[in-house]
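Service request form, structural biology core

Requester: graduate student, group of Dr. S.
Request type: structure prediction, single chain
Budget code: on file
Notes: please return the result as structure tokens.

Sequence provided:
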Amino acid sequence: MRLTQALDRFSTCRQNFIKRVWACTVAAMFIPAVLMGQQTADGIVFQDGNGNNKLDSEDARVSEVAVSNGKEVVLTNEEGYYSLPINEDGGKIFVIKPAGYELPLNGSNLPQFYYIHKPYGSPSSRYPGVTATGPLPDSINFALQKTEKKQKYRVILFGDPQSRNVQEIDYLDRDIISELEGTGEFAFGLTLGDIVYN
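Core staff response, request fulfilled:
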């Protein structure tokens, strides 16, 4: 009888031990996320009627547009609203352009589809990184502009140009890029692989 009681106690202790180890393992998986300090990035995707890249009261909201933080992807609701987690010490939020729309361009002709959250900026280094953005904005909005939805279009892809200095950039311009002038209209171009040598 004593042996049976001892075995029962051992079995109970063993089960409790396994439960505690399991609970500690699960907690250890979630503690880093809590310590990282998660915030919520909210915003609206809208059709920019007047092209000012700002959400105005008359601008239509765009639903079912994918927005991501690089890990999760959500769709905007019927009011164009989205919400995503982002680390308080830094992260990115970007919109995935839907068909039938185009993105606004900045002065360097680059599409404005993302927001980099870097409250303290990049660490000091030889080359400048991201300047400090400060606290997360109350709303990170993305403008879209309505355009014709094309079924076919032409694009240009450059692979591994690897220019190592200004002279080689000039070679690339003279021998390749200038040869494309007058060959037709292209929707966009991408440079893939090693853009520069080092």
